[in-house]
Amino acid sequence: MVTRQQPNTILIRIHSRDVALLGAPFAILRAMKDLRRELSSLYHESSKDPTERGLRPMPPREHWPKEWTTLYFKTYPRLPRIVLPEAPAHGGIDVLAAIGKRASGRLAATGPVSIEKLSTILTYSCGIFKSENGHVHRAQPSGGGRYPLETYALVMRGSAELPSGVYHYDPRGHALDVLEERPFRREDIAELFTYEWVRDMSLAIIVTAVFARSYMKYGERGYRHIHHEAGHIGQNLYLASGAVGMHCCTMSGTIDEAIEKLLDIDGVEESLVYGAVLS
Q: Which residue, 45, 78, 197, 217, is the most exposed by fewest CB within 10 angstroms?
């Protein structure tokens, strides 16, 4: 967070610490933008070799600590939930043809998304297909099987079976945790997304990362794995949406801090990494 403290001073808050920078404000802000670009390049370069710069070498599997093989899921045991219907079997779909037809769609919604379609989209984008002996087989690959991502649905056009509101997807129970039932007015949506056309969509899928799940095993390089997995989910969203006759558009036009506040996450331990809207 950046605030003006006094003339020619910029106060920067970094992880709860205040750092004051002196100088012409616009010059400081330009330097900060350059620094952010440099930091991203520095991270990419320094995380290329997983055995250097403090990154963890991988021991034999029999010596792995328990936390590396324990799967973590976010739960909301005190909140109501909506159990989703079972998604249809995936037989008969031509995957190559589905990939060939993949496209970003921004058409205005003609009505609410059905609970059956949402169930299918979530199942085939990030759902669990099989679970045994502490291992799960999910729709998306995940670096080291850490599954650091959580998925939320913002239902902007609701119905009696699926009211407008904020939901968290529980893949183990294939259910939606009801975080908040609420309407989304056009002005509400404008505070969450930068693009005007998003206000005409039915649904937003928000993917967040709980970074520690990957960092505990892979150190800094785990950040790469997190974004790999988000991309896998994004492609699945496109293909699953197309399979049920819906349009999907992934985007970077999310107002992250506003959405994180809506989801009641801190933006540090858990933060938004990906967004998509559907109609």
A: 78
Contact present, 118 and 84 (Cβ < 8 Å): yes
Look up residue 15 and give its DSSP letter: T
CA distances from 80 to 37, 114, 126, 138, 184 (A): 43, 19, 21, 25, 20
Q: Which amino acid is at 104?
A: S
Q: Which amino acid is at 24?
A: A
Over residues 214-259, the pLDDT tens digits come to 999 988 889 999 999 999 999 999 999 999 999 999 999 999 999 9
Q: Rounded to an integer, what distance in angstroms lies between the CA atom of residue 184 and that of residue 263?
A: 14
- pTM, two decimals, is 0.85
C-alpha to C-alpha distance for 234 and 205, rounded to whole angstroms: 10
How far is it, in rounded angstroms, from Cα 152 to Cα 204?
A: 8
Is the separation of the CB atoms in 111 and 164 below 8 Å?
A: no
- Residue 225 is given by DSSP the state H
Paired with 207 in beta bridges are 151, 274
Alpha-carbon gap, residue 271 to 260, rounded angstroms: 7
Question: Collapsing DSSP states into helix, strand and coil, what is residue 185?
Answer: coil
